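step 3/5: co-fold with zinc ion
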Amino acid sequence: MFEIYNSYTKKKEKFKPVTEGKMNIYTCGPTVYSNAHVGNFSAFLMADILVRYFKYSGYDVKWIMNITDVGHLTDDNEVTDDGEDKLEAASKRENKTVWEIARHYEELFMKDIKDLRLLPAFKYPRASEHVEEMIDMIKTLEEKDVIYETSDGLYFDISKFKKYGNLSGNVIESLQAGARVEVNEDKRSAFDFALWKKLIGKNENHIMKWDSPWGSGFPGWHIECSAMSKRYLGETLDFHTGGEDNKFPHHESEIAQSETANDKKYVNYWMHKSRVVVNNEKMSKSLGNFFTVQDLLKLGYTPESIRFTFVSVHYRSKLNFTEEKLQESQKTIDKFNEFIQFIIKSEETQENKSIASIIKSTKQQFEKAMDDDLNVSGALAPLFGFMKSIRKQITKTGISSENKEEILSFLRSMNSIFEVFDFEEKKEKELSADDQNIVDELIKKRDQFRAEKNWAEADKVRDELNKMGVKIEDKK
Ligand SMILES: [Zn+2]
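step 4/5: write tokens
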């Protein structure tokens, strides 16, 4: 039975799907005005692991991740509705049209997604292509008398939605008290949020614009996700995921819009990825610890090691991202891959009756941990024990070709979630004469260090040999 920590109720709950056997999930996707950084990807990868585990468990999953290409303002927490559209700002900065910016960064995002092996979502709807649905939803909200018009746009009156603040824990009264000087004096409350922005003031020359009953303009960021999730997944979602920083005001406002417009519960389970820090500091361009996926690949890290670093830590623990962690991840992946090669190359002798029971108990432990709020680190632990026991069995009793297939197919099912293992048989290659000389020299050097009991140096030489694709085994 799958249990998940619901960040709305702040407790673990048993999962019950809206429709038996199905699971639908909406993930707030990127705002395509610059390269997504690894912090963004940690949230997308959390959703990927959830989707993959539900598929593994036999669910029919429908995953929607939107592309925000209009309406997300530069003022990060956006409660003032005062910033400039992030895409319009990027268009000036890079001297490209706003449409070029949108499609360019969307393309780069899709490349990152592929590199990090995220499962493809059912669809990546663009906000700019769903303005009609947004206008429809705003009209419904207008009929329900929860919005009002000012000279510069349409706003949701949060005092009309009593549950506003339940997700983030922000109480309206304390929000009001702590409010900064309101820029827009027409607003009834500083925290009323924009549904539609008109083309006046700093938005006078906004390039992306649409006609609406309230004049030409563009949608607010929050209404996009309410409208697109309804269009593709319906009025009540099983899961809605995002980063911790999406909770307020973005998700809080989505709830207000969707529940008022649809008269239905919007989301059954909310999941938020804890913020990522880099070398124990907040990631920022000025600190120089701002990594994009492509930055890390250029530094020589494999996509697998990046993926594993994010998915192997529980999504609710704070991840301190460091290059050492990437190296450790690579070592762990190598361990699994060496084991896979060991299995592939093991001599087929006789049937080993213990293999099936080792697989069965490992699988149970794995699922027990994953069912407990996606405890990935807890789910990985039995896999290390698994490798040890299997190796022991092979040395002791040997295995049959059926045993081999059982082991490999179990590991493949694990990899349908982790997606970092390599099952391709590695053929041994002949060394060139030059390489053979280098290898001989290195082995001599290593023997020397070992004779001197200088294990650290001996290990270094072995690593060097490994890098050349040469594996050393010390036998009696
Ligand atoms: Zn969103």
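step 5/5: annotate
Residues 28, 225, 250 surround zinc ion (CB under 6 Å).
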